[in-house]
């Protein structure tokens, strides 16, 4: 089965074509970072309008790069949520219109299920069951995964997601949007342990996360410098924040692996590209005899390939029909492919 994937949940316009036999044939992504940079964050109306401008040309481009005619497409998958409602509607409307025009089935895909399955775009790929750490700008989740659509939520952030905290700390340090990658780059030159920030919720049982207090601790530390934030001091603050966030994520994964007995950890979402996090998770997993799997950094952020892959599994199982877009959509409410059809 050959599937066209469409991703428009936030500020990335992305398309891809995935073939169940040949794998990923092509993927194209347009980022809106420059559009939103003057505002210091995503402006939903601007995001929706840019999706409208860019999506159809990107679909033409990905069809060309995959050397695939519309008649060779067997199905269409689009992100139905969670995300920004206007942005989601752009992708959903065009996907359903193409499905009618081409007489092909389409299916709405859960954005975080797409992220979860992104490591299966790589080789070697993990095998179910796995533990999944989904860590992005909008979500921080620990999920026990028995198979596609068989998810048990073990823990989540009770306030800011990890990626959101990275972006907010970057903003208070005066770094450009998007802040997370800029903060990680700055932290590379920071002095280890000059700032020892709290590790939220490591002093209590459970697998939930909290990053709001950590963000506030950085804010207070910056104020204590009388706002004399030279480059060296900003780097030290960034390093201290990143070390704290990474330790929390790593320790919660350790606890989850021990609790579940699982020995494969998949990590996806934008923060999954963070090099310090990847190194910490590898160090954590080795004594437990666990393996860690990631998608390539390009597929950690929002992309069409993960949506095409997730959609392919569901379309092959007979699922089809337009799904309503949803700004909120718990991942553990999903069902295995084919459990519900039409």
TrEMBL record:
Its EC number is 2.3.1.234. InterPro entries: ATPase_NBD, Gcp-like_dom, KAE1/TsaD, TsaD. SUPFAM superfamilies: Actin-like ATPase domain. Its main location: cytoplasm. Fe cation binds at residues 111, 115, 302. Gene3D superfamilies: 3.30.420.40. Its cofactor is Fe(2+). GO terms for molecular function: iron ion binding; tRNA N(6)-L-threonylcarbamoyladenine synthase activity. GO terms for cellular component: cytoplasm. Pfam families: TsaD. Residues 24-308 form the Gcp-like domain. It comes from the Bacteria. It is found in: Cytoplasm. HAMAP family: TsaD. PANTHER family: TRNA N6-ADENOSINE THREONYLCARBAMOYLTRANSFERASE, TRNA N6-ADENOSINE THREONYLCARBAMOYLTRANSFERASE, MITOCHONDRIAL. NCBIfam families: gcp_kae1, T6A_TsaD_YgjD. Required for the formation of a threonylcarbamoyl group on adenosine at position 37 (t(6)A37) in tRNAs that read codons beginning with adenine. Is involved in the transfer of the threonylcarbamoyl moiety of threonylcarbamoyl-AMP (TC-AMP) to the N6 group of A37, together with TsaE and TsaB. TsaD likely plays a direct catalytic role in this reaction. This is tRNA N6-adenosine threonylcarbamoyltransferase.
